[in-house]
Amino acid sequence: MAARTLARTRTDLSDFLIRHRAKLTPADVGLPTTGGRRTPGLRREEVAQLAGVGLTWYTWFEQGRDVQVSESFLLKVAKALRLDDAECSRLFLLAHRRPPPPEAYQWPSVSPLIQQMLDDLAARPAYVLNLRWDVIAWNAAADDLFAFSGREQADRNVMRMVFADPDMRYRLPAWQDDALRLLAQFRADLATAPDDPTMLALIDELKKLSPVFRRGFEEPDMDSYARGIGAVLSPDGSRRDFAHETLIVDEHRHLRMIVYFESPLDGPVKTSAQDG
């Protein structure tokens, strides 16, 4: 009975993946359309490309072969196939894994009223962060300061910007202090979801990219915390110093708005951010 049930589940999983793959076109996901297609929807290699997983592994998974896949793998496939809450949970159950909370696989968005609030703060840079510190909404003042709209979605993450973007690091005259304060708050936020695969994946990535992040994460020694950056060089080279306030946008989805309040600072500009 158990063997028949397992075989049926694998067939259901294969049918599920093929069905959802057929619902999407290359244009839907930003891929070029090349040549004729014998069947509708995305090809397996396109799903693997979008998910960032190996084609062979995805093929075996879709075929229902006896392969072990991680929660991170399933989340990547769910995002590539644009599954909604119920569909993502179904995918996990068919793969014999516990479904994750929605915030683990959804790219959150804000309501029109929250976006209007951001836009109304015309003189103050402001943006909304999720639990992983992805920037999911911002106003024009924040875009002028941090160029969010010119970044790929995956790169609109405050931790990645501060620790893995050399250009941004150069523009932070108090980089060492700012980076460690931000990291201290990020570590505190991790306690909310210590097993979240997307958080853990980001942490692993940044440990490899930044020795400072790795040391600060593994050996924390900070008494001050911050969600916003304290000092930024504008494109014209002038230094702008900020204080911040944090507003809760959606407690359930861990969305917070960071509002920047500029304070004048006299004195020479320090541009040796790389020395940290």
TrEMBL record:
Query: Can you give the residue ranges of the HTH cro/C1-type domain?
Result: 16-88
Mind telling me which InterPro entries this protein's record contains?
Cro/C1-type_HTH, Lambda_DNA-bd_dom_sf, MLTR_LBD
Q: What is the lineage of its organism?
A: Bacteria, Pseudomonadati, Pseudomonadota, Alphaproteobacteria, Hyphomicrobiales
Q: Which CDD domains match?
A: HTH_XRE
Q: Which domain of life is it from?
A: Bacteria
The protein depicted here goes by the name: Helix-turn-helix transcriptional regulator
